[in-house]
Amino acid sequence: MTDLASNPVRVEQLIQLHGSPVNVLTSNPMRATICDLKTVAAEANLPLQIHLARKANKCVEFVRAGIPNSIGFDVASESELRQTLGEFEGSLDEPFEDSILCTAAIKPDGLIRLCVTENVTLVIDNADELATLREVLACIEQPAPVARIAFRLQPCRQKFPALATRFGTPASELVRLAKTVLDDQRIEVVGVHFHVQRSHEQFAPQFTRSLIEDALETVDRLRETGHSIAWLDMGGGFPINYLRDESQWRRFLALAQPDPASNGEFAIDREMTWSQRPLIDVDPAWQPWNAVHWFREVLTPTLVSEITRRELTLKCEPGRALLDGCGMTIAEVQFVKNGSDDELLVGLMMNSSQCRTTRDDFLVDPIVIGKSNSPDPAANDNNDDETTGFFVGGYCTESEVLMQRRFRFPHGISRGDLVLIPNTAAYQMHFAESQAHQMPLAANVFF
Ligand SMILES: Cc1ncc(COP(=O)(O)O)c(C=O)c1O
After folding, report:
1. Which residues does the record list as N6-(pyridoxal phosphate)lysine (modified residue) (predicted)?
2. In testing the pocket of ligand 1, which one of 49, 55, 167, 211 has its CB within 8 Å of the most ligand atoms?
């Protein structure tokens, strides 16, 4: 990313060739992370299977890069599944058992049917989903294939009071469900799964160890009912570092979030966001570990022996961490003007759906490549004075602010400048992408 940022000619070529915005991607960092995570597990003597959570980025190139590196995939829709099956079909590498897990939050009949017929493991979230699976199985012609399923565990509320989640089913209810499946020749329970979205504090390795220990108890209880559970899936949520150092993150928290000590009032006069919006729901942008170090901290010898003495394989499904460093989004400045309140507005040739998740903001600062860096002297008519302002985009609403934060441009910003938003491959570039106003989707270019 820094190489590209320091090559304005190349950046300009990308925009000329592919339009604005353009997503620039590479799967090399993903390969390196896979290798490092595998090394951590191998050093601990722990059987590990890594699955890329495809929902983090729609590009099939990541599947293509993952298959020869012996990873599996977590799919969340029929399209993701069909595409992944197609890639395995066209590959010389044999998939391992349960290499595709379907964790879709809503599973239409067609998706369930496809999973069953293609021997893809369904992660069953609740009793109704199991009932739908049974109905689908009843409609499949004889000889009906066996549906391989894992149960999605809802972490115990008493043990994890701060972890409210809409997903999964409590252990005791799963045990009841598992008993109802025992006599059903068409369903085989092969795994236990959990995935939680962590707050900043919940990234502590101890927290994940406790979640795994809780899930191991559930494995024991399900085995007692007679099911031969082969694996435990700890989901994704591996941390990544978007920022260079902790002080940036602490400073953001102090400025952007209401101070509990002063009754929810903001500690500081906040000029930093659009319409003084509070940014409460943000991804933890700084972590004391990267994903690999964190995984090593999670896997204490005691925890590893608890997993291996049960002869379980540990599965994980990172999305964000595998895509760390795998992509950035580049857009061209189309105009710079003042709004009616005299705020400086920088119009980027993109819309807000092209760098957005369901969070309040993305805490990475864009990099501006000035036209003045361009070798073309005719372009060199910029105002280079320091200024501050907001990025606005192509949707026709007053709220179409691309990032909620005010940015300071130490060398000014002008029409024709190019703006690079780093590290957008995980979720940012695709998760909320829409074609409102019939605007085309951004091109995805792989290096
Ligand atoms: C079931 C499941 N597994 C894995 C992931 C990937 O999470 P992350 O990208 O935080 O690693 C998600 C993300 O929403 C998920 O829902």
Report:
1. 55
2. 55
